[in-house]
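INFO  loader      accepted 1 record
INFO  loader      residues=251
INFO  predictor   begin
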Amino acid sequence: MPRGRAILSDAEDRAVSYTSHEPVREEVRRLLLDRLLARELAPGERLNESQLAAEFGISRTPLREALLQLASDGLVEARPGRGFFVAGMDPDTARDLYLVVGTLEALALRRTGVPDVETLRALRSLDERRPRQARGYDGARKVDVDMAWHRRLVAACPNLPLAELLQVARRRVFRYEYVHASEFERVGTTGLEQHRRILDALEAERLEEAAGLLEEHWRHGAASLSAWLEGADLSASDRSEGRAGGPSDGS
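INFO  predictor   done
INFO  writer      dumping tokens
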């Protein structure tokens, strides 16, 4: 959808407000995510809710729902009494988060055991949907498919407290994943090859080998991401002209 075009007409927005804002919320979330990936919204930047609502042609309710969803994914921060801000990014925090996720996910895989044939087939299918070249590359889609792969891998984990901890840790990883994966050259197909080796080990019922490869996969991601962040310029790009940042309206 082109920037500045209303998502819904006034009548449609009023109708949605009586039922559910989910379709609007999801579209707004994707639009804001696209801007984060394009660095049109810089870390630490305050989001102006009134300006965003006017630009998208929607009421404040679905906008806030979208912002709260982004906050739950660690992409923005909700500060009481001050509004929403684009979350910061730190190399040391990124590395630590990736190592935590790798440890928890490997433990969850060990508790889950070797997945059944249907799950292994689904995991292979998800990898087939991952982009393998720069042409037509969509970083957000890459991350969405990759996260779906990792969720499916341990979806049957019987340890519910472990699964909940892993879910929380993954949410904090999202913002780093989305920004790092915005360009194909930074991610390539190394992750896909690592997925293949993990699945090969599982299909051969070598669970401990697969768990070790899974931890190695996250360690590689931690090293790659933290090295990139050390030299990355995460300020808003020149394409940010007219973005809905700047002082908040205080709500």
